[in-house]
Amino acid sequence: MGPTFGRGAMTNGWIDIKNTDMMLIMGGNPAENHPCGFKWPIEAKLRRNAKMIVVDPRFTRTAATADLFLQIRAGADIAFLGGLINYAIQNNRIAKDYLVNYTNAAFIVKDGFKLPEDGLFSGFDSGGATYDKATWNYEEGGQLGPKNEAATGAGSSGGASSVAGGRTSSETAGEQHKAGQEPAKNFENKSPQVSSKPSTPPDKGQSAAGGVMNSQTGGGHQAAGGVGAAGQGGPKPPPSLPPNVAYDLSLEHERSVFQLLKKQYARYTPEMVERITGIPRDQFLKAADLFTSVRKDGDMKRAATIIYAVGWTQHTFGTQIIRTAAILQLILGNVGRAGGGVNALRGHSNIQGATDMGGVFDIFPGYLKIPAPTDTDLATFLKRTTPTVSKPDAWDSYNYWSNTPKFMVSFLKAMYGDAAKKENDFAYHHLPKIDRKYSWTEMWDYMYQGQVKGLFAFGMNGVMIGPNSRKNIDALKKADWLVVCELYPDETSEFWKAPGITKDEMAKIPTTVYRLPGAGFAEKDGTFVNSARWLQWKYVAVPPPGQAKVDQEILARIFLKVRELYQKEGGKFPDGILNLSWAYTTPENPSLAEVAKEINGRALADLTDDKQPGVTIKAGQQLPGFAWLKDDGTTACGNWLYSGSWTEAGAQMQRRGTEDPSGLGVYPNWAWSWPANRRVMYNRASCDPTGKPW
């Protein structure tokens, strides 16, 4: 979803599913695996007469509640989704005005770009098994006609299908307007005064719906980019966007993204879908007609949602499945709307928060990229990772990731404090530069090969959650040491007791195991970030028992001891440890309230903004939001996405307002959600270009 929409998070949220008119559930069994959340699909069925389509290799309890169940061959999901895309296009069940104004469908791709009819895109180098992506970009030239001639007027196809009484997903005034214009109020059909240009894109803090062809430019973090395989964040910068992208508002130009998409998916006929998926042709057509009926006869009032879980993500091609679902939802105009979206079902309360805070190997908090060895200085790194801004003459820029320098410098100031100065690239050189994958799978494989000598496991039972428990056990046998922080012994902390290991083998295992008693969820405060990106503060119910300690105390004591050893004995590359900012009131057990404030960000000097005359943020004050972040070292912010969560007004995630003026389940004053407390992402797309709900 990141390469398509701009952010890789659930677009809507559990409660919002009650607002849908149509559900497609694949790659998950929420009736059994998410029973509490499944009440919302059931509510949609009972109160809105929403239809549910379930596609699964098994007849599950979720399937038992469906209006239509299709049994699919395992692993054939892309063929089924591709068939839906083709059906929608061939039967004119698409949201054309939405596509023109909120996606890259109208953009013209460079001459010479080739679709993978033979399995390969243009630019493939068979010798090095790599791609030259020179053609994976857009044409320069502004507005064109369908035959590549220059258009003779501004023209407009936007806003032509505004429907009174439609539903908007924007929950706070100002989230569905162009900067500097009067926003639409509340949830009523009131229109702001807008330009007559073909589109009125979202304000600077809200990205447009997305790109219907794969994003390459910007490494997969912007709403629309070059055409081709999704960016992987490699060390080479992607092609720069032309400053004035060529586009065709009719979507008829043969090299428009839409026409290329149409050509690519034309092969996904009902017969092809039947052959690959095993779903009979008549059943597929019934499902395709039902799901795309939300756009029958150009109707834009209704919305459909796609719901999935790890049945998609744990395929080796899971990214491609989700990418296809995202394309389908864009051509139907279902992204950014109440009851729409592509919604991943999280299985645990803080998986979203762990990812937001950089819990995977290739990102920092806020989904900032980790440098590669070729990023020799901050300027080089920012040039590679900051998407270029393109401003076609009818649109303003849709590219909020162009603010990456502000996010990154503020992050470095939060990390290294006074040691991060302009003269030393804001301590950029303290950061790790990775030259290989360090994902969960690779990490265990490196240990299995004897390359990783130690492992910290906090709340993770690595022996049980991987696809190959025996390999992980054998990997732990080769480690010098293992530290497990848990509430009780588990299969990882007692891996040597696994079935089949003899006493003689146990005696030969050299691994030293340290078991640290951690605190349970009720024994510590902090936040949970749920599937809908809501940051909710939780409070301590009881203190940790006995010698058990909270996570931050364990980590802090380890860090302080390591720093002490570096101070006394030196070592390789000490700067990143010695210069780390650790200005907490209680260094050995930092208050999570202090940490949360640090993550939100604060001003390091008095700040003013030309767009908000008369408003000044004083040095030392909490920042009201990420729009105040600077790239000159005058702001510090641990995670730009969470900026606004703990302001001068207090901890927004502690709010418990139960009012819901929209009736859509938004609850805008309950906790706080990123970005900027938006409950449905990309919600400018919930209205037509004049600001009227679809």
Question: How far do the termini sit from each other?
Answer: 23 Å
**Helical stretch count?**
21
- Ranges where pLDDT stays below 50 over 5 or more residues in a row are 150-208, 214-235
In what order do the strands lie side by side in the largest sheet? 3-2-1-6-7
Q: What is the percent of helical residues?
A: 25-40%
How large is the share of residues in beta strands?
Answer: 5-15%
Q: Considering the protein shown, what is the CATH homologous superfamily of one domain? A: Dimethylsulfoxide Reductase, domain 2
Task: Summarize the main sheet.
Answer: 5 strands, parallel
Q: Please tell me the CATH architecture of one domain by its name.
A: 3-Layer(aba) Sandwich
Class by alpha and beta content: alpha/beta
What is the number of strand segments? Answer: 21
What would the CATH topology of one domain be? Dimethylsulfoxide Reductase, domain 2
Q: Give the CATH level 1 class of one domain.
A: Alpha Beta
Which descriptors would you attach to this protein?
694 residues, alpha/beta, Dimethylsulfoxide Reductase, domain 2, 3-stranded parallel β-sheet, 21 strands
Structure description:
Helix 5 crosses helix 9 and helix 15 (440-448) packs across helix 17 (469-477). The chain is α/β, with parallel strands linked by helices and 694 residues long. 26% of the residues lie in helices and 10% in strands. Mean pLDDT is 86; it is low at 150-208 and 214-235. Strands 3-2-1-6-7 form a five-stranded parallel β-sheet, sandwiched between helices. It is globular and about 70 Å long. It is built from 21 helices and 21 strands. Among the domains are: 2-147 and 206-345 and 682-686, 3-Layer(aba) Sandwich (Dimethylsulfoxide Reductase, domain 2), CATH 3.40.228; 440-517, no CATH class. A hairpin with a 3-residue loop joins strand 8 (363-364) and strand 9 (368-369). The longest helix has 19 residues, at 551-569.
